[in-house]
Design the sequence.
Protein backbone atom coordinates (compact mmCIF):
# COMPACT_ATOMS: atom_id res chain seq x y z
CA UNK A 1 0.00 0.00 0.00
CA UNK A 2 1.16 3.52 -0.73
CA UNK A 3 1.91 5.78 2.13
CA UNK A 4 4.43 7.68 4.21
CA UNK A 5 6.79 5.96 6.61
CA UNK A 6 8.36 7.90 9.43
CA UNK A 7 11.07 6.51 11.68
CA UNK A 8 11.82 6.18 14.44
CA UNK A 9 8.43 6.45 16.14
CA UNK A 10 10.04 7.44 19.43
CA UNK A 11 13.44 9.04 19.88
CA UNK A 12 15.33 10.29 22.88
CA UNK A 13 18.19 12.71 22.60
CA UNK A 14 20.59 14.29 24.99
CA UNK A 15 21.02 18.02 24.90
CA UNK A 16 23.66 19.12 22.42
CA UNK A 17 23.16 16.18 20.07
CA UNK A 18 21.87 16.33 16.53
CA UNK A 19 19.23 13.83 15.52
CA UNK A 20 17.76 12.91 12.14
CA UNK A 21 14.16 11.89 11.56
CA UNK A 22 13.44 9.81 8.50
CA UNK A 23 10.52 10.29 6.11
CA UNK A 24 9.96 8.08 3.08
CA UNK A 25 6.97 8.06 0.73
CA UNK A 26 5.99 5.71 -2.09
CA UNK A 27 3.08 7.80 -3.35
CA UNK A 28 5.09 9.38 -6.15
CA UNK A 29 4.27 12.78 -4.68
CA UNK A 30 6.40 15.71 -5.72
CA UNK A 31 6.06 17.81 -2.61
CA UNK A 32 7.00 16.94 0.96
CA UNK A 33 6.68 18.79 4.24
CA UNK A 34 7.70 18.70 7.88
CA UNK A 35 5.33 19.95 10.54
CA UNK A 36 5.89 20.24 14.27
CA UNK A 37 3.03 19.63 16.70
CA UNK A 38 3.01 21.03 20.23
CA UNK A 39 0.11 20.87 22.70
CA UNK A 40 -2.31 23.76 22.24
CA UNK A 41 -0.54 25.12 19.16
CA UNK A 42 -1.70 22.93 16.32
CA UNK A 43 0.80 22.12 13.60
CA UNK A 44 3.49 24.50 12.41
CA UNK A 45 5.45 24.20 9.18
CA UNK A 46 9.21 23.67 9.54
CA UNK A 47 10.41 23.05 5.97
CA UNK A 48 8.92 22.04 2.67
CA UNK A 49 10.17 20.81 -0.66
CA UNK A 50 8.24 21.07 -3.90
CA UNK A 51 10.81 19.28 -6.05
CA UNK A 52 13.99 17.25 -5.71
CA UNK A 53 17.10 19.23 -4.74
CA UNK A 54 15.04 22.21 -3.66
CA UNK A 55 13.50 23.12 -0.32
CA UNK A 56 12.21 26.19 1.47
CA UNK A 57 11.97 27.35 5.06
CA UNK A 58 8.62 27.31 6.73
CA UNK A 59 7.50 29.33 9.72
CA UNK A 60 9.81 27.76 12.34
CA UNK A 61 12.94 26.59 10.47
CA UNK A 62 15.53 27.80 12.97
CA UNK A 63 17.49 24.92 14.44
CA UNK A 64 16.41 22.46 11.76
CA UNK A 65 17.86 21.31 8.45
CA UNK A 66 16.60 19.12 5.61
CA UNK A 67 17.73 17.56 2.36
CA UNK A 68 15.85 16.34 -0.69
CA UNK A 69 18.22 14.21 -2.74
CA UNK A 70 15.54 11.74 -3.80
CA UNK A 71 11.89 12.23 -4.62
CA UNK A 72 10.77 9.70 -2.05
CA UNK A 73 12.89 10.87 0.88
CA UNK A 74 12.89 14.05 2.97
CA UNK A 75 14.88 13.62 6.20
CA UNK A 76 14.76 16.24 8.94
CA UNK A 77 17.73 16.96 11.19
CA UNK A 78 17.05 18.56 14.54
CA UNK A 79 20.27 20.32 15.47
CA UNK A 80 21.62 21.35 18.83
CA UNK A 81 20.68 24.91 17.89
CA UNK A 82 17.00 24.09 18.28
CA UNK A 83 16.25 25.41 21.75
CA UNK A 84 13.12 23.41 22.50
CA UNK A 85 13.13 20.31 20.31
CA UNK A 86 10.84 18.10 22.38
CA UNK A 87 7.75 17.72 20.20
CA UNK A 88 5.82 15.49 17.84
CA UNK A 89 7.02 15.72 14.24
CA UNK A 90 4.82 14.97 11.27
CA UNK A 91 5.94 14.45 7.70
CA UNK A 92 3.49 14.95 4.86
CA UNK A 93 3.39 14.88 1.09
CA UNK A 94 1.18 16.05 -1.75
CA UNK A 95 0.99 15.83 -5.51
CA UNK A 96 2.01 18.82 -7.53
CA UNK A 97 -0.69 20.75 -9.30
CA UNK A 98 -3.40 23.02 -8.09
CA UNK A 99 -6.25 20.55 -7.83
CA UNK A 100 -4.67 18.18 -5.38
CA UNK A 101 -1.60 20.00 -4.22
CA UNK A 102 -3.10 21.13 -0.97
CA UNK A 103 -4.41 17.76 0.11
CA UNK A 104 -1.75 16.42 2.40
CA UNK A 105 -1.08 12.80 3.22
CA UNK A 106 0.58 12.43 6.59
CA UNK A 107 2.90 9.91 8.14
CA UNK A 108 2.29 8.47 11.60
CA UNK A 109 4.75 10.87 13.22
CA UNK A 110 7.88 10.76 15.34
CA UNK A 111 7.98 11.73 18.98
CA UNK A 112 11.28 13.37 19.98
CA UNK A 113 12.14 13.84 23.63
CA UNK A 114 15.22 15.69 24.78
CA UNK A 115 16.55 14.47 28.09
CA UNK B 1 -0.52 36.61 8.07
CA UNK B 2 -3.10 33.91 8.04
CA UNK B 3 -4.52 32.72 11.34
CA UNK B 4 -6.92 29.94 12.20
CA UNK B 5 -8.74 29.88 15.52
CA UNK B 6 -10.58 27.00 17.13
CA UNK B 7 -12.21 28.39 20.23
CA UNK B 8 -13.34 25.06 21.66
CA UNK B 9 -10.42 23.15 23.23
CA UNK B 10 -12.74 20.25 24.08
CA UNK B 11 -16.19 19.07 23.04
CA UNK B 12 -18.24 16.03 23.91
CA UNK B 13 -21.21 14.29 22.32
CA UNK B 14 -23.38 11.27 22.94
CA UNK B 15 -23.16 8.45 20.48
CA UNK B 16 -25.68 8.87 17.61
CA UNK B 17 -26.12 12.58 18.28
CA UNK B 18 -24.86 15.59 16.35
CA UNK B 19 -22.00 17.89 17.28
CA UNK B 20 -20.61 21.03 15.66
CA UNK B 21 -16.99 22.13 15.91
CA UNK B 22 -16.20 25.79 15.33
CA UNK B 23 -13.42 27.39 13.33
CA UNK B 24 -12.73 30.95 12.27
CA UNK B 25 -9.91 32.19 10.11
CA UNK B 26 -8.38 35.41 9.02
CA UNK B 27 -7.05 35.91 5.52
CA UNK B 28 -6.73 38.71 3.01
CA UNK B 29 -6.96 36.39 0.01
CA UNK B 30 -10.16 35.54 -1.84
CA UNK B 31 -9.08 32.18 -3.24
CA UNK B 32 -8.16 29.54 -0.72
CA UNK B 33 -8.93 26.10 0.62
CA UNK B 34 -10.20 25.08 4.04
CA UNK B 35 -9.84 21.67 5.62
CA UNK B 36 -10.81 19.63 8.59
CA UNK B 37 -8.31 16.97 9.63
CA UNK B 38 -8.87 14.31 12.24
CA UNK B 39 -6.12 13.01 14.53
CA UNK B 40 -7.20 9.89 16.44
CA UNK B 41 -5.18 8.47 19.36
CA UNK B 42 -2.87 6.78 16.83
CA UNK B 43 -1.86 10.36 15.89
CA UNK B 44 -2.23 9.63 12.17
CA UNK B 45 -3.69 12.76 10.57
CA UNK B 46 -6.63 11.98 8.30
CA UNK B 47 -8.39 14.37 5.95
CA UNK B 48 -12.07 14.63 6.85
CA UNK B 49 -13.36 17.24 4.43
CA UNK B 50 -12.20 20.01 2.11
CA UNK B 51 -13.89 23.23 0.99
CA UNK B 52 -12.81 25.47 -1.88
CA UNK B 53 -13.52 29.10 -1.13
CA UNK B 54 -14.93 29.92 -4.56
CA UNK B 55 -17.57 27.22 -4.20
CA UNK B 56 -20.66 28.45 -2.39
CA UNK B 57 -22.05 24.99 -1.79
CA UNK B 58 -21.05 23.49 1.52
CA UNK B 59 -18.96 20.32 1.26
CA UNK B 60 -20.31 17.06 2.62
CA UNK B 61 -18.71 13.65 3.15
CA UNK B 62 -21.16 11.09 4.48
CA UNK B 63 -21.85 12.06 8.11
CA UNK B 64 -19.54 15.07 7.95
CA UNK B 65 -20.61 18.43 6.60
CA UNK B 66 -19.42 21.99 6.87
CA UNK B 67 -21.07 25.35 7.24
CA UNK B 68 -18.86 27.71 5.25
CA UNK B 69 -19.61 31.39 5.79
CA UNK B 70 -17.09 33.24 3.64
CA UNK B 71 -18.05 36.75 4.66
CA UNK B 72 -17.87 35.85 8.33
CA UNK B 73 -14.70 33.78 7.77
CA UNK B 74 -16.26 30.87 9.58
CA UNK B 75 -15.90 27.19 8.78
CA UNK B 76 -17.64 24.84 11.19
CA UNK B 77 -17.74 21.05 11.02
CA UNK B 78 -20.93 19.14 11.77
CA UNK B 79 -20.72 15.46 12.64
CA UNK B 80 -24.05 13.68 12.45
CA UNK B 81 -24.90 10.32 14.03
CA UNK B 82 -21.65 10.44 16.02
CA UNK B 83 -19.80 7.17 16.43
CA UNK B 84 -17.23 6.06 18.97
CA UNK B 85 -14.63 6.06 16.22
CA UNK B 86 -15.14 9.78 15.74
CA UNK B 87 -13.35 10.45 19.00
CA UNK B 88 -10.21 12.34 18.09
CA UNK B 89 -8.59 15.74 17.93
CA UNK B 90 -9.92 17.77 15.03
CA UNK B 91 -7.90 20.46 13.31
CA UNK B 92 -9.17 23.18 11.04
CA UNK B 93 -6.68 24.38 8.42
CA UNK B 94 -6.41 27.04 5.75
CA UNK B 95 -4.17 27.46 2.72
CA UNK B 96 -3.96 30.12 0.06
CA UNK B 97 -4.68 28.68 -3.39
CA UNK B 98 -1.84 30.55 -5.08
CA UNK B 99 0.69 28.54 -7.05
CA UNK B 100 3.61 28.85 -4.66
CA UNK B 101 1.67 28.28 -1.47
CA UNK B 102 0.47 24.74 -1.86
CA UNK B 103 0.96 22.50 1.10
CA UNK B 104 1.70 25.41 3.41
CA UNK B 105 -1.31 24.92 5.61
CA UNK B 106 -2.04 27.06 8.63
CA UNK B 107 -3.63 24.98 11.37
CA UNK B 108 -5.84 25.87 14.30
CA UNK B 109 -5.05 24.75 17.82
CA UNK B 110 -7.31 21.71 17.65
CA UNK B 111 -10.50 20.54 19.37
CA UNK B 112 -10.56 17.30 21.31
CA UNK B 113 -13.83 15.47 20.67
CA UNK B 114 -15.04 12.86 23.14
CA UNK B 115 -17.87 10.52 22.18
CA UNK B 116 -19.84 8.98 25.04
CA UNK B 117 -21.56 5.61 24.53
Sequence:
Amino acid sequence: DGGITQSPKYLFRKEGQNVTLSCEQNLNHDAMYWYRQDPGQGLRLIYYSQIVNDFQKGDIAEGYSVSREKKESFPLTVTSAQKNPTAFYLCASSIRGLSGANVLTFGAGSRLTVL
Amino acid sequence: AQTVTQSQPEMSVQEAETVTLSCTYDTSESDYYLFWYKQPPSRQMILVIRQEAYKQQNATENRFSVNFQKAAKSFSLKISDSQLGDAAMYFCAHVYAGGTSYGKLTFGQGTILTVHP
